[in-house]
Amino acid sequence: MSIKKPVPPIILSILLIVLALVLAGAGCRAHALVSPEVPVPSRVLDVNGEIITLISDENRVPVPLDQVSEYMQDAIVAIEDARFYQHKGIDPVSLVRAMFRNIQAGRIVEGGSTITQQLAKNLYLDPGRNIGRKFEELILTIQLERTYTKTEILEMYLNEIYFGQGAYGIEAAARTYFKKPARELGLAESAMLAGVPRGPSIYNPAQDFEAAKARQGVVLDRMVELGMISGEQAGQAGSEPLQPSKTPAIVRKSPYFIDEIEKYYEQNYSEGLETLYSGGLSIYTTLDLKMQEAAEKALTRGLARLNPDLEGALVALDPKTGQIRAMVGGRDYNKSQLNRVLARSQPGSTFKPFLYTAAIDLGYTAGTTIVCEPVSFPQAGRDDYVPKDYQGDYHYRPFTLKEALYTSDNVVAVSLNAQLGPEVMAGYAQRMGIDSPLRPYLSLPLGTSEVTPLEMVRAFGTLANRGIKTEPYSIQKITSRTGQVLEEHRPSLTQALDEKTAYIVTDMLTGVLKPGGTAANSGRNLGRPAAGKTGTTDNLREAWFVGYTPDLVAAVYVGYDDKSRVVGLTGADVAAPIWADFIRGALEGMSPSEFPVPDGVTKVKLCADDGLLAGEFNTRVIEAVFVRGTEPISKCYGFGPVDYLPYQVSPPFLEGDLGLFDFEEVLPYFLEQRHDDQEE
């Protein structure tokens, strides 16, 4: 039996140099760089075609080269391939230098590999060191150089190399070690990170800071030698104190959204995650990176001043299509991967619009009045149910349905639910987009059944979209590596409400963000028409705001994962400002648009005290929308409903329908009564 003897290191080095020179000078014909056998991560793209991330089993966030600090670009070139911009992929000078060092050592201690060679090896070849594999590497290197520019090669390289601590690529490394994006890396940080790829287990600053510091010095010296920086700059960078994080970070753009993409693929394709990680799929999603960034910033800013354990979620979709535009499932993905956009919680008074939608659809109007006063409802085998307003108070006066909704009066809501029947309200909530089981209790409009933020944006989107319900979706299309369409999704639309009903309720909800509404402060600087509803659960346990413009609907949830803890703030205090901050950022640069007005409706001015047409003596006037023909025809002269007048009306005036008697006739009497009282 013959035994193959290994090629001596010196001979191998000489052969590689000769081979490299031959290949470089022979003008090798390039072949396809990616063959079907080569594992390629799948691309996830946003609605505008921008890459969100590459999905693989590695912690990696690809970024364009202009999003990488120039210090980092120079540092990696200086230490890994100083002649990168001069050679054509294979550098004979480096190879000759490596040969002499290998001869001196009696073994291969340096390969003279360029950045392009390292990229070819990392992208296409399995680990190993033999002459056949090296030949493949050289061929692929030349092909890379002929296919891509130097800028593109450096970008791919910086996104590909491993930096230790589970971080692949410069963006993940920058965030892992220094908690900042790659574009913000300074000279000291860049020099330290540039030294890591040569030996991630040796020069890892989180594991051996002294070794990493020494390696940083080598990088800085090399940058000075190449004229990239001055000696003074190197000295300042070398003395700059650095404290690399020792906690590995999961770095991924839109991580909660990407998790849902991965779960969807795993559940719907028999090959599971294997193809997703290595099959080179292209997944075209509905996410808008600009809106996603606005959502992440708004939630972070809104929770920054609060307890660090307090959690939140924000989800937004296009009400016309159901396409999910932004999804933030929590405060910090590294601390918790629970996606609260899909977690059920009590929604508080954000549930009231479903009740008022049912009422308007069944013949009530925005001017219908219900009195806020103590009322009790018998319950079988239990104490009577006695609803109360916020802080246990009553107003002891009538409310129009519009004012009751935008001021979030609890007593009026429960009384209205009793008139309609809780099953009716539950049915309308489900018709509009709520899928979770609902308990048809009188307290249902106060949000006593649990739902998810995603369900809430879907249901509110029905109001924003002229009564048309959409099915939320996040994937537009998935294609294979060869471009074959594996699946494709389009909007699914259902007419759930009469468009006049949707518009009337929308008009009622615009009052929430105007003076007198529960979220007036958040609506003040919004700069565009909007509608929404605040929500706060019992004892200030959780806070919500769900709102919409004609172009975007979004829900914000704030609460603790431990449901025994309380936020201590209302939806108006914490959730509505986050929502408004998001809307401003997400729609920046987009011209404001009005809610489309359907045919068959009319807007009139009402006396807020009794729902009649506003008269010359009214001090509280609101505008409300009606189906044409249902608006009030009688005028109010500022004295409120008869049962609540401060002056006693004599019986002759009270005969017949109280809402239709002639105020012109009784006005002199009221004025006389007022004059007499003033004299007393």
Provide a descriptive summary of the structure in words.
With 680 residues, this protein is of the alpha+beta class. The protein folds into 3 domains: 199 residues, Orthogonal Bundle (Penicillin binding protein transpeptidase fold), CATH 1.10.3810; 247 residues, Beta-lactamase (3-Layer(aba) Sandwich), CATH 3.40.710.10; 79 residues, no CATH class. Helix content is 38%, strand content 14%. It contains 22 helices and 20 strands. It has a 5-stranded mixed beta sheet with strand order 2-1-5-13-14. Strands 7-6-18-17-16 form a 5-stranded antiparallel beta sheet, sandwiched between helices. A two-stranded parallel sheet has the order 3-4. Helix 1 runs antiparallel to helix 3, helix 1 runs parallel beside helix 5 and helix 2 packs parallel to helix 8. The protein is elongated, with a radius of gyration of 34 Å.
Tell me the radius of gyration.
34 Å
Distance between the termini: 129 Å
Tell me the strand percentage band. 5-15%
Write down the CATH topology of the largest domain.
Answer: Beta-lactamase
CATH architecture of the largest domain: 3-Layer(aba) Sandwich
Sheet of most strands: 5 strands, mixed
Task: Tell me the domain tally.
Answer: 3
Count of helical regions: 22
Descriptive terms for the model:
Beta-lactamase; alpha+beta; 3 domains; 22 helices; 680 residues; 5-stranded mixed beta sheet; 38% helix; disordered C terminus; Penicillin binding protein transpeptidase fold
How do the strands and helices of this protein lay out in sequence?
Layout: H1 9-26, E1 42-45, E2 51-55, E3 59-60, H2 70-80, H3 92-105, H4 115-124, H5 131-147, H6 150-160, E4 167-168, H7 170-178, H8 187-194, H9 209-225, H10 231-239, H11 255-268, H12 273-278, E5 282-285, H13 289-304, E6 311-317, E7 324-328, H14 352-361, E8 369-372, E9 377-379, E10 382-385, E11 397-400, H15 401-406, H16 410-420, H17 422-432, H18 453-464, E12 468-470, E13 475-479, E14 485-488, E15 493-495, H19 499-510, H20 520-523, E16 531-536, E17 543-548, E18 553-559, H21 571-586, E19 601-607, E20 621-627, H22 663-679
